[in-house]
């Protein structure tokens, strides 16, 4: 099987087992025989060597009650000014998250009024629709953070759920 990593497009040869990625519904699982499963393009071989967690709206609500969880909104400042950010979250723009996590503990706490996470701390990332936060999630995993979640619904889902 050939894989174009840039676009996550699989090209198969006849009679080749196809491993699916990024399934949106658990109900699909009962119809297909999945031997290996991956949720990101770098791990399409199904080796399972990277964790890739996606958080639902309900799980986010529970996490917001836990002071040991760090929620980071990675949108740009202009977006935050227009909409606000998720309750309990801190704002670190996408391009600066890794640098901010390299601050000394006291500097991080002074700037964000939250304790700096260690490599095992639970971190939840959010943006508008889950794309930028997924990219930051992958970056943090490569840096050794083991417990990084992506709130894939992002601000768009949060805002819609608040209106209901």
Automatic annotation (TrEMBL):
InterPro entries documented for this protein: Rhodanese-like_dom (IPR001763), Rhodanese-like_dom_sf (IPR036873), Thiosulphate_STrfase_CS (IPR001307)
Annotated protein name in UniProt: Sulfurtransferase
Gene3D superfamilies assigned: Rhodanese-like domain
Rhodanese domain span: 65-163
Domain of life: Eukaryota
Keyword terms: Transferase
Source organism of this protein record: Microctonus hyperodae (Parasitoid wasp)
MF term (GO), any: thiosulfate-cyanide sulfurtransferase activity
Keyword Transferase belongs to the record: yes
SMART domains per the UniProt record, alphabetical: RHOD
